[in-house]
Structure formats: C-alpha cells, structure tokens
Predict the structure.
Amino acid sequence: MTIKINDTAPNFVANTSQGSIDFYNYIGEGWAILFSHPKNFTPVCTTELGALQKLLPEFTKRGVKVIGLSVDAIGNHDQWLNDIKETQGARPEYPLIADEDRKVSTLYDMINENASDTMTVRTVYVIGPDKKVKLKMDYPASAGRNFNEILRVVDSLQLTYKHKVATPANWKVGDDLILTAAVTDAEATHKYISFTKYKPYLRTIKYTQVQGHDN
Ligand code: BEZ
C-alpha cells in the first residue's frame, strides 16, 4: 500500500518498548510523527534516536507525539536504548514499535525492496489532528536525518493548517509568509490590512500578521 500526502493515516495496534499502543489513542487530538529506522544496534540509527530525544521537548511543546519503528524484536529495544543513553547522552522516552511481523511497516510502505527486503528505510510521516498525512519522506540507510528540519517543517505545517498561507524556501518561524491563491487581493486587504505584491501569484505578509489570528 502506498500512503500519500492527504491520505488518512491508518490506525494500528502494535507492541512497543512501552507496551501495546493503539496509534490513534496515542496521538489523541494532536499531531504525530511516525518514523522508521532500519535496524537496532547500528551507528546512524543510534545517533538519530539520540538526536530526536534531545529535540523531544520542542516537539512536545508543539503538541506532537513521536513514535519510532523498526522490525527488531521487543527484547532488543531496551538494551539498545541504554546504549543510546551511553553514547548520545539521551535515552529515548518516546515509544519504539517492535514490528517483527512487519505489519505496520508494510501498512505504511516503509520497506523498499530495492534497498533491502528485510529492513525499513528511514521514513518519516507527519500526521495532523485530522489524522491526514501532512508529510512523508524517505531517506536511505546511509544518511541520518536532520531533526531540526523536521521541526521546521512541523512549524510550517501547523501554520498552514490554520491559515491560508504557504511558506517559502528555507522559511523559519518569524519570516514572511506567502498568501495562497485561495485569498483574493480584496480579502487580503480586509484581513491583513497590507500585503506585498511582487507578482499577481507572489504576495507576502509579515509573520506577525497571522499571530493571534485563528485563521
Ligand atoms: C545505520 O544506522 O548505521 C545503518 C543501518 C542499516 C544499514 C546501514 C547502516
């Protein structure tokens, strides 16, 4: 099964390092990151899981629940989490799915037979409060992910979930925002008082103009 942006993220129940978890119950009404990594006790994965733990307070602040997955056995996870604490200085507090039967990784298309028919690739899903997939990305086993970038894109997704705006290349919180085509010039003037029109298709507003607005 291929899951694309805007598809509903399917629910599942899985064995994790923190017991059995019903995914939808775990997410609640908020946002979620479901990510896979190829294998426990491997170097890049070790650094990734430590790096993500260090950023966990930032995700929590944004109402994002994090859950990881590999096809390793449950008994494997605990020792490896200790290794991550020892080598990376942070023991992951988010649950790790032990997807031994590949039920969840198959459901979420995390195994790429062109790379390996036994291991998951580095897949990340960001899922919104409406349970729709907002972002999906795949990295190969050889490249560790940049979790600051995932945090940055969460900031963009959370803003565009509420407002008729888009974020330009390399955007970060505080930078100007792009008005989408769904907003007419008249609506933009009414709602935001002023905007900059570089081209009919390229109009921007200041970040401060959406602060304090619900939509
Ligand atoms: C790693 O995390 O270092 C890794 C995992 C699977 C294959 C190759 C590298």
User: Anything to note?
Assistant: Residues 43-61 form the longest helix (19 residues).
